[in-house]
Amino acid sequence: MAKKYISLNEVPIGTKMIVKETKEEVELVKIQNFPTTFIVKFSDGKNDSFLTHQVEIINWPDKV
């Protein structure tokens, strides 16, 4: 059976992520395309952007 392809453009807004470099937990605010970039919010309210390989998505996808 073939693996199902999951697009990182389908990550739900509000999903929790870990920034790999700093180990900080952030929340997804927006997804930009070309290249796929996650705009995230830190606990102090600041926003920043990360490429998909710079974060670890927590508990997503639920089912593959």
Characterization of the model:
The protein starts with 15 loop residues before the first strand and ends in a 7-residue tail after the last strand. It is built from no helices and five strands. It has 64 residues and is an all-beta fold. The protein is globular. It has a five-stranded antiparallel sheet with strand order 4-3-2-1-5, with no helix packed on it.
Mean pLDDT, rounded to whole units? 92
Total number of helices: 0
Beta content comes to 35-45%
How does the overall form come out from the CA principal axes?
Answer: globular
How would you summarize the topology of this molecule?
Elements: E1 16-19, E2 25-32, E3 37-41, E4 47-51, E5 55-57
Antiparallel strand pairs: 1-2, 1-5, 2-3, 3-4
Short note summarizing the structure:
Helices cover 0% and strands 39% of the residues. The protein has 64 residues and is an all-beta fold.
